[in-house]
User: Fold these one by one.
Assistant:
Number 1:
Amino acid sequence: MRQIGIGIVGGGYMGKAHSVAMGAVGAVFDTAHRPSLEMICTTTEQGAAEKARAFGFKRSTADWRTLVDDPAVEAVVIASPQETHQEIALAAFDKGKHVLCEKPLGLGLEQSRTMAVAATKSGCIHMVGFNYIRTPASQLARQIIARGEIGDITFLRAEHTEDFLADPQMPGDWRTQGRANGNMGDLSPHILNAALALAGPITSLVADIATVHKTRGGLAVGNDDQSAIMCRFASGAMGQLFISRIATGRKMGYAYEIYGTKGSIRFDQEDQNALWLYRAEGPEERRGFAKILTGPLHPDYKPFCLGPGHGTGYQDQIIIEARDFLQAIHEGKPRWPTFDDGVLVNQLIEASWRSHETRQWIQLSDV
């Protein structure tokens, strides 16, 4: 066991989640590397000092360069707005420091590719924070698919739907300005990553993207509300994805249905501890979807709880993510999802915008 110095840039929603995860991961998973919370960076010195006290960091700063340059910081977690990701990551790699970066990787495809090249060149560990795919249920779904239990995938339907901007009377703010903060920049990365993880590479797509509520509080909305994507996977399977921040009634609609030649799978993040599995076997009158409640026999469940069906939560996903990051550092080997996987997601986002703007199918090899 050895201590590893952690620096976190950002003290908001995700900054807190990563701070808590790094504080807990050693006890939960008995990791070979035990995080030492060295420094946290937020936008003001006073705010950073308050976050350091609240989250248990030794020191604080309002300048991310101070954090990256600090010799006690060996690994950097980037939990700041995405327009800051590239500069911080490149500086960290230049100092030989490992990086866990929140999604989406960069401010567009070009930045993401630049970050991935720098990550590989540095020889450092690099990961992207796609936490939802790490639930025990979704890890089980990936195992079932990989083992061929539902046969060859023929169709995937997936969505990431929330309703935090469903009310057209809600005033506009930073979320309604700038393409990067819109529905495609904010919500789509998670479900696009899920589609790739569950069904493999996507070769082509066609997308329609819409701003439904054109104004909020008298101000013009500067980004998109929802999108629909049809795609083809390299395997030949078809796909359909829906992403929306105005899906009334949906709180965490990260969900998918996957149909195969021998069975099918259903999952909904609003019931994240259950996976529904259909097997096309046995007497027809006895067939039906079986609800599998996750428990200690499923991936990454037992370290949190010994009771089947008791469940894991959102913060546990971030702790699993922290374990993966530390394990990759310990082994000196990249661990999915790397910056290269983050590039694939940004490539799909860019392809979706090109399709929407040209009103045609886009080949991913051309993006």
Note: The radius of gyration is 21 Å.
Number 2:
Amino acid sequence: MRDYPNAIMFFAAGFGTRMRHLTKDRPKPLVRVAGRALLDHAIALSDDIALDRKVVNCHYFPDQIKAHLAARQDITIVYENGDILETGGGLKNALPLLGAGPVFTSNTDAVWKGTNPLQELLNAWNPEKMDALLLCVPKRNAIGHTGKGDFLIDQDNRLTYGAGDIYTGVQIIRTDRLSEISETSFSVKLLWEKMLKQRRIFGVRYTGKWCDVGSPEGVKLAEDMFETPDV
């Protein structure tokens, strides 16, 4: 089994209810930020990394996702019929396309300013001790996010739940333990909990800025982030 990720899963199946009027006639990943669909912002990051497989799931307005990616022969689209599978169920459903071993997963409702977040994960990935490596960001660099934080990162970069850094929605994760979960629809957090018990889940802090684009207000914040010069 390979020890380094050569595949990525993009989560694009949600309803985007927090986007309100912006998702009445389109899926959230096709909402545009700075003239570009959110999904394209996410995929562009993977284009800079040597990956053999790219998978996008869809559910809400799936034909729009398929049409949008029609020219991308390197991307496989998975339509989730019926109930939403959530992140864990979506990942499990796509395993035959992703292959064995660790994979990248990426939400599609955020944008970045700085170095490539996938490369930062890859630089820090240690397959000997990690089952998952989550990219986190300090609150001061998390634009548009109002939560208290998701994880505490200790001196060895191991994670525990707590009001500390914010999970950005991008990670490297081993998928072999998905077979231990019988549910069809579930959050990837069920997988994290297994890894947390064995102290096999780690975090790395993103060195740039990250913007949560989960609402109409987030679109404006993201565009302002891009336009604001670094100091």
Note: The longest strand covers residues 166-173.
Number 3:
Amino acid sequence: MSQLRVKDVMTTEVITVPHDAPVAQIVTLLSRRRISAVPITDEFDAVLGVVSWTDLRAKIEIGVPQTRWWRRLVPSLPQWPEGTAVEVMSSPPLTVEADASLDAAAGLMYRGGVGRLLVVDGERRLRGIVTRSDLFKAHAERALLADARQ
């Protein structure tokens, strides 16, 4: 069996946010779409960075009282910071080319401590995204095929 490539498992329809999007818009997008991060692009679709829940948590001020009963009675609401995507994004993002092997992509994710890689072309334009889940699914499918052959 030939080695699978990132292009074989990546998602090509990726939600992106422009570099000047307000933080509140990003929070709304992540919440409504139930996604953990969003790529930030410039006007030419070149990838500038990524905003994840981790990036946002570092900027949120939550005044949660310390007692459990109080948190249940009065849930505190986060105060989202003012600013734009470029002010809260992680940059530069970890990227990979579509022709990279899944093993190479897994190594990049592991070394970078991330759960996703942005797939870019030679001009850093976004072409897709590959996640840890994509790699797990491909690995599981290969294992099932190998078991079936035995």
Note: The chain has one domain: 6-149.
Number 4:
Amino acid sequence: MSGERMIVQEVSPRDGLQIEPTWVPTEEKIALIDSLSELGFSRIEAGSFVSPKAIPALRDGAEVFSRIARKPGVVYVALIPNLQGAQRALQAGADELNLVMSASQAHNRANMRMRCEESLSAFSGIVEMTAQAKQTRQAAVSLNGTVATAFGCPFEGRIAEDRVLSLVRQYREMGIQGITLADTTGMANPRQVATLVKQVLDIVPAAALTLHFHNTRGLGLVNVMAAYEAGARRFDASLGGLGGCPFAPGASGNVCTEDLVNLCHETGIETGIDLPALIRLSRKLPALLGHDVPSQVAKAGLATELHPVPVRAAAA
């Protein structure tokens, strides 16, 4: 199989590190992002401006954004929860603000500590603030709105497609052009994914739609391909398969970047990402984090890496 180019957005510096129990020093975060910037990514979610009390692992977001070596052509994204976070992200020089709200009321209360209606109201203020900043030439940032738990919630179960489509329309009507559908807890299946993606693409152009899958139940890459075949072209992934939502039971395991890029490489889908260098970077993660990571291709190597024939077999 071959097809149109896939855009892989690297999220390990944010989604990957947010649940790590061991503090990753600021210098190491910067080094990781700088390394990723050299591998062919056009988009990197470099950090978060959530309250340090909520996500202490990312409390150095402003310093990280101010010190990374920005590569021309790479969009550095910041996840933000509210107006205060948006202001801090603008000051730090984020290129894009990723606003997150859950389709599930229960998960939004657990994650954002507010009802969905309150989140939407706050987003309106952020849209207005960024528009004013652009007019005064203080900053020119793009906005992306994530619909978390779009495929299911661990507290409420299956989320109605009409609910997700309504939120997507509300985001767009506000002036938020980019949309992410997030399978926050790995509850999606490929048939469900294909059906929802086709409907969302009637509202959002493929260039503005991102899919964010978790491999919690082993369906991450299958869901990526189902979405790709349905017309989606941009996907989040995390180096080593790191990450997960700290506010949802059992939600570990983002789709692994090198496993996804390897799949694309094997099936003729262009990504523009240096796969061998990506694998080498992933293999450094256990030393950085103090534990093994879920990546499969980093352990096994590329399928083209042949091995010597065992002596016993050669002599037979």
Note: The two ends are 38 Å apart (CA to CA).
